[in-house]
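Troubleshooting log. The previous structure file for this entry was overwritten by mistake, so regenerating from the original sequence record. Sequence copied from the archived sheet and checked twice against the printout by T.R.
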Amino acid sequence: MSEIKAKVLAKFQEVFGTAEGTKVYFAPGRVNLIGEHTDYNGGHVFPCALTIGTYGVAKKRTDGKLRFFSMNFERLGIVESSLDEFTPGGDKNWTAYPKGVMWAFEQKGMKMDCGLELLLFGNIPNGSGLSSSASVEVLTGAILRDLYGFEVSNQDLALIGQFSENKYNLVNCGIMDQFAIAMGKKDCAIFLDTSNLKYEYAPVVLKGAKIVISCSNKKRGLGDSKYNERRSECETALAELQKVVDIKSLGELDEATFEKYQDAIQDEVRRKRAKHAVYENQRTLKAVAALKAGNLEEFGKLMNASHVSLRDDYEVTGIELDTLAEEAWKVPGVIGSRMTGAGFGGCSVSIVKDEAVDRFIQSVGEAYQKKIGYAADFYVVEIGDGPVIL
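Regenerated output below.
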C-alpha cells in the first residue's frame, strides 16, 4: 500500500499544486462468495472485502468548491462542482458517486461546512462487478467522517452509501456491497441476513487453495442493465405469494414451502425468479455451514449450483460468464466457480487448489479468448479489512 500511497500523493501535488495538509484513505472492493440477488429479497449473502479497492487523497478548502480528479478517468481532468450543486440523477460522470454520498450526509443532517479537493485511484477493474462504485461511496463516507468530524459508525457508512446509490444515482441496489466494504475483516467473509442486518464473521480458511477472480472484460452498468427489472419481478412474485402465505420477503421461505405455494405466482418467468431467490438463500445457509465444518468440497458444489440457478432461473449470466464458469468446472483442482455480482458481464469467482492456479488461468483464459474473441483477466486475491486512513 505504501507504494500506492506515494503515487497518489505525488499525483495530488501535480494536479492540485500542493499535497500539504492532505490525508490518504483506502476502502476495499468486495466479492460475494455465494448468495446472489438475495440481498434485496430479504435473504442471506456471504461477501468479503478484498485487498484491492479505492484510494483517496483529500483536503478541505476554505470556500464551498468541490474539485474532483480520478486517476482512472484522467482525460476528464479536474471536475469542478460546489456544495450547492447536488442534483439527484443529474450527474453523468464518476463524480455522481462521491457527490451522492455528500448529498446523502446532508439529507441526514450532516452538512459539510466547506468544500474539498479529492483525488481517487482505484485498482479494482472498472465495471468488473467487484463493486467499484460502492467502494467509492464507503471511501467518501469515511473521508467525510474524518475531515468534518461527523459521528457515524462503519455500519452507518454502508447505509448512507446505499441510500445515496438508491436516491441520488437511482440504482435500486441492496445493502450487500456497501456493507461488505464498510464492515470488511481480514481473512473473514460476512454472513449477513439482509432482512435485519444481523451478521457474523466467518473465517475463510482455504487450506491449500486460493480465491481467483476472472474478469470477463465485458463492461456492464447496473443502472442500465436488467437489474431493476429482476428486482421488480421478484417484488411482484412476493406480492402474489403474500396472498396465500404470511411472509415479508422471499428470504423467509424454504424450498418445501416455496414448492407448496409457487402456483400463486401467475407468470412462469416470475416463478423462476422467485425460485432462484428462495433456493439461493438456502444454498447460502448450507454453504456457510459447510465452510464452518471445514467441508470446502461441499462449499464448492453449492457455488456451482448457484451459477446454474443464476443462468437458468434468474437469467443474468450471459455467454461471457457462462464460458468462465463452465471452463473452470473442467479444470482439475477447481473446487467451485460461479458468476459473482449483478451479472450481465463482470466477474466469476473460483476457489482453486494452489497447484492448479496456473493451469486454471491458462486453460480458462485460452478457452475464453477462443470463444469470446477477447481476453479475460485473472486476479488471485486476498480477503482484507474495511476502510482505513493510511
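The mean pLDDT is 95. Archived copy saved in two places this time.
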